[in-house]
């Protein structure tokens, strides 16, 4: 299950109590990889270009004209100061977001699915405590309802996504991604 290189980073192996909605339980473990690297992104489409232009204009107007240039170092310092203005303006006009790696919320999940899953988990705990056959039946009905609702939500989300594709280049991009997808084989 784990490569030899990662074996010393894996700790606390366990069989989880959480229902996997199959006839097996999840195997849990902790992986110690150190602190995660936070990723900072900027959506260039959300840039406030008026703010960008004002920032650049104000910075260029506030620059002092060089009185005397004695060396290449003086030229380099001035050039670096001027070259940094567009980058600073962009960072000011397009604030970024810091993302935690590894977490991607799914678009199809809803409050309704959360409620159905919570009820299913509650019924499983009732069964685990009582071990009564009728509690198992209630749990199975709830589990199947959750499976059906999650499949429907995924299917509806996929349908909405496909209907949102308007032009040929976007459709070609999706087709290329699906063609290269190894999980569909």
Largest sheet: 2 strands, antiparallel
* Percentage of residues in helical conformation: 40-55%
**Approximate shape:** elongated
| DSSP, total strands | 4
Summarize the helix and strand pattern as letters.
EEEHHEHHH
Our count of domains comes out at 2
Distance between the termini: 23 Å
Decide which structural class fits the backbone.
Answer: alpha+beta
| Mean pLDDT score | 85
Q: How many whole angstroms does the radius of gyration measure? A: 28 Å
Please work out how many helical segments DSSP would assign. 5
Q: Hey, roughly how much beta strand do the residues contain?
A: 5-15%
Strands in their spatial order, largest beta sheet? 1-2
Uncertain runs are none
Oligomer: single chain
Would you kindly provide a written description of the structure presented here, covering whatever features stand out?
- The protein has 185 residues and is of the alpha+beta class.
- It folds into 2 domains: 39-98, no CATH class; 105-185.
- 54% of the residues lie in helices and 12% in strands.
- The protein contains 5 helices and 4 strands; from the N terminus they run βββααβααα.
- The strands form 2 sheets. A two-stranded antiparallel ribbon has the order 1-2. Strands 3-4 form a two-stranded antiparallel sheet.
- Strand 1 (10-19) and strand 2 (25-31) form a beta hairpin.
- Helix 1 (49-62) runs antiparallel to helix 2 (72-93) and helix 3 packs antiparallel against helix 4 (133-164).
- The protein is elongated.
- The mean pLDDT is 85.
